[in-house]
Amino acid sequence: MIGYQTSIRGFRIVETVLSETDCDNLSSSLANSNIIRSRAGARHLMAVPEVIRIANDNRLLEIARQELHGQPHPFRATLFEKTGKANWLVVWHQDTALPLRERFDAPGWGSWSVKASVHYAHAPASALSRIVSLRIHLDASTADNGPLRVVPRSHVLGVLADSDIAGIVKQHGFVECLVPQGGILAMSPLIIHSSSKSRSEAPRRVLHLEYAASHSLGQGIELAVA
Questions:
Q1: Which tens digit of pLDDT belongs to each residue from 63-73?
Q2: Using 50, 70 and 90 to split pLDDT, how confident is the model at 113?
């Protein structure tokens, strides 16, 4: 079992960590930066100065520190941007792919790919258990705008085959993570999660930050900053 604060359920919500002004400034910075956007948002945002600043903000570092029981190191930032015009659903899955400094050969790692010159591989549970994700809600996440859904305690099951995930969701059920603007959802990358399409024109923008207790996940295995 993962030994941090989310270990019992695999996630927790910390309300009103950032102010409305913090969220507006971060949103403005992302809107005005030269990031490459897709329909769903943008990846590889750790080069954006405001993202670096907020990722190293003491309020977020303290939450990550509680989860990891050590000094947290932010290594990846992704913007998810769901609106009435850019609307999609995300099927049930786990977050198992990690950005890595270079390719290597080690048991449990595989399905290599390259995105924007960054190497990615699907990681084993032993590595994913040393990572926590903090989702900053730049807008309130409501029942109508496609909130994240999670299967509590599913993170203790290890890395699952896609064919097994649907059955686990059906057996155990899920909860919707409703989070106010400025709130943070802390979650294990191993928790089964999804989101539905939005039924509202209200935006749902989330900055998804990932932290590790160390950039080193083993001999010759180094996380990339993306």
A1: 999 999 889 99
A2: very high
Fold of 5-222: Jelly Rolls (2.60.120)
Ordered by start, the domain boundaries in the chain are 5-222
Token pair for 160: 């699952």
CA pair distance 63, 185, nearest whole angstrom: 10
Q: What whole-number distance in Å separates Cα of residue 120 and Cα of residue 122?
A: 7
Instruction: Give the whole-angstrom CA distance, residue 57 versus residue 217.
Output: 24
State phi, psi for 6 to the nearest 5 degrees: -80, 5
